[in-house]
Design a protein that fits this description.
Length: 315
Amino acid sequence: MISRRIIRTKVLQILYAYYSSEDKSLSKTEKELFFCIHKSYDLYHYLMALVIDVANYAEKRIDIKKKKLQPTDEDLHPNTKFTSNLLIQQLRTNRQLNAYIDQKKLSWGNNPELIKELYLIMVESDVYKNYMADENRSYLDDRKFIERLFNKVILLTEDLYIVLEEQSIFWNDDVDFVISMIIKTIKKFNEFSDSDNKLMPLYKDDEDRDFTKNLLRKSIINHDELRELIKLHSKNWDVERIAFMDILIMQLAIAEFIYFPSIPTKVSMNEYIELSKFYSTEKSRNFINGILDKTLKDLKNSNKINKIGRGLIGE
């Protein structure tokens, strides 16, 4: 589930915390890195369970209306298209989702007001109104509605972010990415998916997990060499006055150039320039691009870039 870009982002954030702290324990920092990545995986399951809770709330409202002293015809014959949504039914019975939620004790039970608010926002949305008004019913329609529910309602509900921030400092920045992973997951569900349908693993493979650990380690262990390269290629700049986050972005990029033989330098360059769009100013981005470009050329001329693998030799 965790992409290389998110791994790089998490390493950058943890690296910033490492250098800002008096405690320079590499093993402790590594544990913090893996902990915050696992928190993203918690959020993946937590938000997936959220639509189930909203549907459960909708069912309770239907039951309450049916028990009114003088129920209307609409109360007695409600539109149950949402509460019987076929994808939600699959999520309700998904063994992996339920086991993870139970194991991690993740519950929306303490946030009834948020569930109610999400429901009320949903029923007023065009996405919901169009879905409920369409008399045609298919699995694909049900799945597409849940995708839109995540993108058009859940993702845009501000109070959700307040609730998440209260529970974990790691979650707010992850919502957009995690929802994109949830949508990617449910797109793989079909009408024949059963309770054993697999969700995404935390890491795509062992290589990604090793990349996470090694990127942090290589950057910290080779701190002096990496900082010296940054200083060398920013001669006209006072390194002490360069934004700390900009230095960390360059430090990670150069670490990838040198110590990760299977990753093309072009990929590393593009990824960290992209990262700088979120953590640096426009002026800083141009500066980072220039320094990394000069550093890369120098490393290649000094034969310090040794890439191996298909299509990478002699890069």
